[in-house]
Amino acid sequence: MPDHVRIYEVGPRDGLQNEAVSVSTEAKLRYIELLAAAGLREIEATSFVSPRAISQLADADLLLPRLPQADGVRYPVLVPNVRGMARAEAAGARALAVFTAATDAFTERNIGMTVAASLEAASPVLRRATDLGWWRRGYVSTAFGCPYTGAVAPARAVEVALHLVELGVDEVCFGDTIGVGAPGQVAVLTGTAVAAGIPLDRIAFHFHDTRGTALANVAAGLDAGVRCFDSAAGGTGGCPYAPGAAGNLATEDLVYFLDASGYHHGVDLEGVLAAARFATRTLGKPLTTKVGQAGGWDPATGAPIGRAGVADRC
Ligand code: COA
Ligand code: ZN
Asked: Does ligand 1 come within 6 angstroms of the Cβ of 169?
């Protein structure tokens, strides 16, 4: 369906991983329950990475078996190596994401290895996940720019994506990790990926709203034919390289934008706002996303919908 868009929720993983406030397993479960209740069908739930690297997600082994198992909900987990794969299997995962980036400088700081080494680490993980019939995604972070080396050529991001496809991912996700991308680059990157043989239905984008370009980038992705976008309810996941900056594109902003643009996605805005308020309250932060503050808008009546205090269901 050309007007159907997949919203891939990353709040519980990407949104929480860099937050200083320690979030309890119960609160994570509640956040995920609210997201699933809002109609989200792909929720990246946690990471099976080294607890020393990301202490916030050290409870992955306990969290995963307790997730609500509604029909058709997929809970991918981030897995960096075979050690993480063994943990994910034991916890009952059925979908995963592996990660690398377009630049060595970023992967070295993030996971202590080069891009080539990270692909080597991902290889046995993806082989095992393929054998088990799991859904598999591969991230290419810093696809639009690197905090250490600057501009990234689209051909480079696509070269890494092609390696991931060869290793067996179902989907590649290009990440604008530091939020520097602009719509023209989205169009070029999509065109480069398709020309290299990656079909549109295996491409996703992960935008950060660090500089306010995330929704414009989504629009460019939609125009180019991409139909999967990442977002985090509450816009969590501030950028560690830009203290105080906005984080992931907010799911509530994305849902409003898609509704207003006539795309179908199956996600309920008021439900997402409830999850967004819960997440930011848990983190002790105000909800500063656009639609989080203004609410949605009902074109039939002209009234705002889901504004704080009006429909707080948590
Ligand atoms: N789960 C649990 N523990 C793990 C692990 C995993 N998946 N992978 C490694 N470890 C442990 C090792 O057992 C070792 O523990 P020890 O010191 O008590 O013996 C320690 O972590 C270091 O292991 P090592 O193999 O040397 O890995 P490393 O220190 O080079 O770290 C990664 C490599 C990838 C495991 C680590 O950098 C990581 O998990 N990074 C995640 C970063 C992240 O999630 N970033 C955001 C995503 S974009
Ligand atoms: Zn992100």
From this structure: no
Domain range spanning residue 78?
A: 6-305
For a pocket test of ligand 1, which of 17, 48, 49 has the largest count of ligand atoms closer than 8 A to its C-beta? 49
| pLDDT, tens digit, 9 for 90 and up, residues 254-266 | 999 999 999 999 9
The answer on pLDDT for 286 being more than 70 is: yes
Element (DSSP H or E) covering residue 140: strand 135-141
206 CA to centre of ligand 2 in angstroms:
6
Catalytic residue among 146, 173, 228, 239: 239
81-129 per-position pLDDT tens digit: 999 999 999 999 999 999 999 999 999 999 999 999 999 999 999 999 9
CA distance 122 to 81: 6
**Does the residue 205 lie in any domain?**
yes
Distance from the alpha carbon of residue 301 to the mean position of ligand 2, in angstroms: 35
CATH, residue 180: 3.20.20.70
What are the C-alpha distances in Å from 111 to residues 80, 84, 101, 220? 9, 13, 10, 31
Q: What does the H/E/C string look like for 57-77? A: HCCHHHHHHHCCCCCCCECCE
Which stretch of DSSP H or E encloses residue 230? strand 228-231
Number of domains the chain contains: 1
Q: Does ligand 1 lie within 6 Å of residue 53's CB atom?
A: yes
Ligand 1 neighbour 18 (Cβ under 6 A): no
Is residue 310 included in any domain, yes or no?
Answer: no
Tell me, yes or no, whether 300 lies in a domain: yes
**What spacing in Å lies between the alpha carbon of 177 and ligand 2's midpoint?**
6
